[in-house]
């Protein structure tokens, strides 16, 4: 039996299955129900949050003979034909590899032909920002006054690269990053459906690592499933991701707070000897500093952090040891080291330098800006 990755197997097939984008799916469903279809749409947002999936659902929905709540029914003859990926009425174009002016001229010639057994021909142009300037100019006239039977859906992760002339001719929808809570529930539903045992903390860690992307979250889950043999635990997740457990982060920041140079250097040495990625550790330190600052300054902080109760209690306890200005300095120091880590020949030496400068109370960010 052919194996499908989770993000392919659980790709949404209706507007109701799309998570975290209700502000868009509801608007599109209403347009289908009211038959108020625009000629061109622009879907913009980060990778893996549903732009192409929503475009495909919308393309089928506008052609459906018996639309259900604005989504295609999947049962009528038109829907059955459109399920075939080679159907000529829904054309997906990857602008990264079809970005020349000749490609767009070819598209302009083809839009003249009527759809076959459907109301609309829908062109989905993915990564549209990759088109050349001359290709954009070639597309402009067709996009402005397309035939009545044609709908364009442009998708991009970098909307700032699109000419204003293109933007002004599209109905724009901005896709949002999906919350950790929604991603965790999505994973829960999938794992339950697949019969996979798991700890709640493990799902929370996977969802956090996905950083708002549904596709990235499910890809991470696939990697963990390939490694694990049985129940998915938080320890397994951290091992696969190479992320840092809270106890190490707490001990390290405590050592800096206590100005214990020996303990600070020892922890870095142990980190290095255990094969941990120093760059990931610095990123985790920046996030930990930010989480401590949230605990220190915000009411109902866990509504923002969405941590397990055990980890949240640890953070609350540690945050009481620090002043706000200290945590801001920690966040600026570790968060501002990302570019330096890319080019340094010794990440360990850089981490030691950052940590000891905080032990000595130096203003690292001001020093580095000179």
Outline of this structure?
The protein is α/β, with parallel strands linked by helices and 370 residues long. The protein is 55% helix and 7% strand.
Describe the overall structure.
With 370 residues, this protein is α/β, with parallel strands linked by helices. The protein is elongated, with a radius of gyration of 25 Å. It contains 20 helices and five strands. It is 55% helix and 7% strand. Strands 2-3-4-1-5 form a five-stranded parallel beta sheet, covered by helices on one side. Helix 14 (278-297) crosses helix 16.
Layout of SSEs?
Elements: H1 6-9, H2 22-34, E1 40-44, H3 51-61, H4 77-82, E2 90-94, H5 101-110, E3 121-126, H6 133-144, E4 150-156, H7 164-167, E5 171-174, H8 180-194, H9 200-209, H10 214-227, H11 234-241, H12 246-257, H13 261-273, H14 278-297, H15 302-305, H16 309-319, H17 324-335, H18 338-343, H19 347-359, H20 364-368
Parallel strand pairs: 1-4, 1-5, 2-3, 3-4
Helix pairs in contact: 5-6, 8-9, 9-10, 9-11, 10-11, 12-13, 12-14, 13-19, 14-16, 14-17
Strand content: 5-15%
The structural class is alpha/beta
Total count of helical runs of at least 4 residues: 20
Task: Report strand order across the widest sheet.
Answer: 2-3-4-1-5
Q: Strand-and-helix sequence, N→C?
A: HHEHHEHEHEHEHHHHHHHHHHHHH
Query: How far apart are the first and last residues' alpha carbons, in Å?
Result: 61 Å
Please give the share of residues in helix.
Answer: 40-55%
Principal-axis shape equals elongated
Indicate the radius of gyration in whole angstroms. 25 Å
Mean pLDDT: 89
Largest sheet: 5 strands, parallel
Which stretches of 5+ consecutive residues score pLDDT under 50?
364-370
Number of strands: 5
